[in-house]
Design goal:
The structure is a homotetramer. Chain A is α/β, with parallel strands linked by helices and about 400 residues long. Chain A has 2 domains: about 240 residues, Type I PLP-dependent aspartate aminotransferase-like (Major domain) (Aspartate Aminotransferase, domain 2), CATH 3.40.640; about 130 residues, Aspartate Aminotransferase, domain 1 (Alpha-Beta Complex), CATH 3.90.1150. In chain A, a hairpin with a 4-residue loop joins strand 5 and strand 6. The longest helix of chain A has 21 residues. Chain A starts with 16 loop residues before the first helix and ends with a helix. Chains A, B, C, D: Belongs to the class-V pyridoxal-phosphate-dependent aminotransferase family. Chains A, B, C, D: Pfam families: Aminotran_5. Chains A, B, C, D: Its EC number is 2.6.1.45.
Chain lengths: ~400, ~400, ~400, ~400
């Protein structure tokens, strides 16, 4: 792929030069004082993005899947019951992980395209008089369907049930791109990765853990060493790491935080909304439909788009790749063949976003989709140009 | 400017990562054997791009302007007469340089938007029975107006006059993007730079010199040291450089040649034509007009586009920069305020080209240009998608 | 730390520019065909370094510790017995990991500075008539003491006991620097990382797994998802990855293999021996003593060196860092305060190695060690210069 | 050459990662407001290094040789007389340039190894009652012999003769490494380059011009366009450049200035003295002799060292390159074969300097030089360790 064509997958994102430069650092000794000295400020910065005052911030050299494993293995024991809804590929995978770790997983099956069923959660929790359910697990942004769930509603449901279960949230593809309120929503464990809103290379998962969840580790019996919160907290506290740290990613995260704070988190969120809304206008102009069932569920980091009946979304993404050297997200799981995805998170601008819309239009036209060339672009242009200025003013 | 927005100025170009990587090299000793060893193959590669068998290839750490100076100061003496036509900013500047170096400059004034007047050159040369005219100077691609001149026609005119003048060609913004035929056109000195078709950083001019022109240096009396062909040829011949060479650019040039040859020069030219033609279709769809007077003059590396009456092209490029963080070429000289330019040379693709078209459309709409959003994009899309495949197949 | 001072810790290593350039790549879609297409050759190359014909090669975005966890969790069940000797920090940590995963760990306590006790292993295995012991775990190169163990001897011991236990080897700090013979030694699981002999950034563990060990995963009951061999093999087989892959490291590994094969593995090993031997000559000239008990145990990737009685090795490494801006390995575990370490693995040359020796000499002199300035350097110089040529001839 | 072995030529220097990162920037539009906005602060910073309040700072995309040409062609006319002493390769080349530009060059021949003859200059100027001599040209640091001349003494001589000639100084290999006092010494034109004390890639010459010298350009008749002060000052004043600027180097210079000011210029000079003095102690320990005739002439950026009688310095540098993959400076001009050079300017530390000394010792021993291995290293170590701390404290 030509090295200046942007990618439009929902992460890993296009990496800004500024972050590539920082990550391209020569090896430095992770046992030197300089390493330990950077940690407190780094974690403080991450806390700001999670919107938490005193959650512990824990990093592992792993992907987001590792974060899921860390979340459950540090807080739960084999046989523990967790409650989770399946409404996309990533909730599905987390369910699978829990089952393979010997948890008793109560699954609420939902339509793909819907979000976390706060009411059903509440109902189930109310029925759980014995507090067998130890944790509620929610995927904040379902990358497969482009659905953002209402975590605040989940919390209100839990509170209405007066249930002590922990609330664990996968915010891999939402954090640092859409608002997150760890403290306000009463989240106990939140999991994200380096390669999404932080715009870094893949390879580090970042977990925020409430004091309540930290307490659970004292009784949690699932085995863990690589993903041990205890080891990591002890080592970080002494200015170290329990094994070789991914220092390039840690220095990258430090710079990523600087970029986010320079732009301003509110502006970052506004930029993501604006770019996403332009994409949605284009989808509408094409006469296509989003997988997300309703507007309140629209994700600002990825749009999953149904192809018209009789078309194969895999043929579309493959053709875009072959003919135009550009990557869009394929349809995952139930959406395989039925939807393609446009990632719009991380380091993107009006300019780059429009290149993606213009190119997928060509690809659709090539495959005889009933769309008009330029129509989606024009809809996005109209939205972008009438909303330009404010949010761009502070873009890096 | 956001570091992934492409630029659409007619050079320096967007630099591919592959070339940035090579240029980002640690200092190596230019007096070591390794340096000298790379030169012959490097010059052979450059000769292929100039399309010459045995012209001398000479590089200087300088911009293209330095190449102009090298061309005249190594081959001419104060008071010598040169013939040149003024039809844009860069021919204008070369004229100025010649005058300041004490040459007698015969200028044929042409409309900006026209090309090299082969007939008028021939006429003037026929009248020059005493062969006072020592050189004819031609700007192959007038970057200010987006005009490519017919150098072959100039040569035929010179031949018809049976005139021994040297033919010097500024191909700064054409070489490695549009066909060039040094030997076929009987060029004596051709000048280009690192930052255009070679897609490198600015800082090296590259000059091809015929044996005939080399002979002239024996009698040429203009002073020269930094730009001395003699010094450079002698030093290069011994595996060295007469002063500190810009080794990052020389290794960059080596890799750039590899990229060009991997894609194939014919494919490189076809890609430039294709991208340029898409831009021209967009211009047409907007109802705007190119500065280039006729289709045979259209440049495949830059399009200069008149803004409608009553509009100021500087306001347009400034607005595009302020509102969308993107650079287009401003109108230069006579075109200042009257035209803007879209550079389409170097490392560009359908994907990136469309982002430029979509963005300038927004900027025009913002300033109440009578254009329809998406119209230019659609025209370009239609052209690109019906011509995709062949040329993209071999893109890097 | 000044960015051109080399580091002398036993990994992560100094990263060659050539590998930094490759790792500094823009994000590419890991679901595109290009990703899957690179895997077979990549794994073939890794197999060559492990010296195996048909072991499965499995990578995880994790550190070497993650590799230990993957090794045991994919092949063993809670309560299974493993046999391991403790003779340094890294064997100690692997023991700890096994215990925390509910294994029954039989530990042979050895002196730090000794190597794997092949005879004691054999004796214990012979006594295990019921074949309760499922695996023997060995640290090939004990980074804390600079001891390389004889894995071939361990295998011979196991064979003499005719015992079916798996043989698992931690070769994190030995692979690609010292000879390794996966097939010849009958290794079942071998674990290494990206940041040592492969000279890459930290963040990927690389595991080789025999067919016999792969069989064990069918019955192994330890929970695993992130580190699942099954998931990884299935995904890789289909040209994918079970979650987001660390593509920068994977492309880096591809290039690292090229570098290793260009130099030739035998030359790589010879270079490590030669640099290490120079360090040992220096140690001898200083009148100091290695932690490794005998010459057959000397590691070619790291030397752990006792400080004289009455001195504190931590003060030495700290002073070297403060006064000369250079990192040496601190003493770990039992060696803390008693020994410092000089890492000599990865991308090092005579030139850089001598800078480390000269600097630690200054640091020792500053702290009134009874050593003569220049003495260690001279001993190393004498060795290097009389052995130069052959091995350097093919250095990258 | 292995990409982490430092080079020990007297420039171009080892480039710090920090500066490589900045220079590795994507193309940005040099006609955008951002470019012009950076210039005033950039030039102010450069003025600080030259130690001048109001000299004009002028840059060209060229090497230092281009700076020499700019200096004379903007201030002098054909036939003008200049006074210059020849005491090394670089004064020799400047003489040659002046002669080729039609100047009347009065040459004072001095021994190579001596410095600028302030007394002889004064004498000659006193005799020049008609003020025919328009300029005195001095090489501050003669890179070929490792000699730093006393520019203050030259100025005092000129003042004693009450002569109005301009004072032009080549400080290519001294500026930003040794103290320079443009205003205090009454310098009129000073010339340096990007690739020495500024630690950048080769490709930009930087010239400081006094108001007096600027006046001269009104009458100076030597032709100039590429190197025109007028064009550059006018363009820079309007926030532009007369042709395509080397923006990577200009942003690099901006960062280089930051680095220099963070360390503090006095500390930069002290560091260069200290590293150089260590080299001189080593030379003394080897029983060798510097080309510089006396201690007051010792350069802190390069040491030229005579090889013993009967030895060939070219064989030494070639052997060091072949056997140890490391570059030292060859002997130039009169010193060819008789001396080798150790560059010690720019981004170097105790650690890297010692690697150079240790390696050249090996190379000398290999060729049977009568030196003791480790002796030079020990002498340098002794000096470095007793002077460490203060100067290192602020090293980047």
């Amino acid at each position: 792929m030509f090295d200046q064509n942007p990618i439009f997958i929902p992460g890993p994102t296009n990496v800004p030069d500024r972050l590539r430069r920082v990550m391209d650092m020569q090896t430095r000794d992770h046992r030197s004082p300089a390493f330990g000295a950077m940690l407190p400020e780094l974690f403080d910065g991450v806390r700001k993005v999670f919107n938490t005052k005193d959650a512990a911030i824990i990093t592992f050299p792993a992907s987001g899947t590792g974060g899921w494993e860390a979340a459950v293995s540090n807080t739960l024991s084999p046989g523990d019951t967790v409650l989770i809804a399946r409404y996309g590929m990533f909730s599905h995978r987390w369910i699978d992980l829990c089952q393979r770790h010997g948890l008793n997983v109560e699954i609420i099956e939902c339509a793909w395209g819907s979000g976390a069923p706060a009411d059903l959660f509440a109902e189930r929790l109310k029925a759980d008089k014995g507090h067998e359910i130890k944790a509620v697990l929610v995927t904040h942004n379902e990358t497969a369907t482009g659905v953002r769930s209402d975590i605040g509603a989940v919390r209100r449901g839990m509170d209405s049930a007066d249930h002590p279960a922990m609330l664990m949230v996968d915010c891999v593809s939402s954090l640092a791109s859409m608002p997150f309120d760890f403290d306000g929503w009463g989240v106990d464990v939140a999991i994200t990765g380096s390669q999404k809103g932080f715009m870094l290379f893949t390879g580090m998962c970042i977990v925020a853990v409430s004091q309540k969840a930290l307490e659970h580790r004292k009784t949690a019996k699932l085995p863990r060493t690589f993903f041990s919160f205890d080891d990591m907290l002890a080592a970080n506290g002494a200015g170290g790491y329990p094994y070789t740290p991914p220092i390039q990613l840690m220095f990258g995260l430090q710079e990523s935080l600087k970029m986010l704070f320079e732009e301003g988190l509110e502006n970052v969120y506004a930029r993501h909304f604006r770019l996403a809304e332009g994409v949605r206008r284009a989808v509408d102009a094409w006469g296509l439909r989003l997988c997300a069932e309703s507007a309140d569920l629209y994700s600002d980091t990825v749009s999953a788009i149904y192809v018209p009946k009789g078309f194969d979304s895999n043929a579309l993404t493959q053709h875009a790749y072959d003919a135009y050297d550009i990557s869009f997200g394929v349809g995952l799981g139930e959406m395989n063949g039925r939807a393609f995805r446009i990632g719009h998170l991380g380091a993107l601008t009006d300019v780059t976003m429009l290149s993606g819309l213009a190119t997928i239009e060509m690809a659709m036209a090539d495959l005889d989709y009933p769309i008009e060339l330029g129509s989606g672009v024009a809809a996005a242009q109209q939205f972008y140009r009438t909303t330009a200025g404010a949010s761009l003013a502070k873009a890096a």
